[in-house]
Amino acid sequence: MRLGDVIDDHCSRCKRTMDHSIVAMMGEEVLQVRCRTCDFEHKYRKNRGGKKEMTTQEAFNKVLASVAISQPQTQALPDPGKKKKKK
Question: Cα 46 from chain centroid?
Answer without folding.
Answer: 20
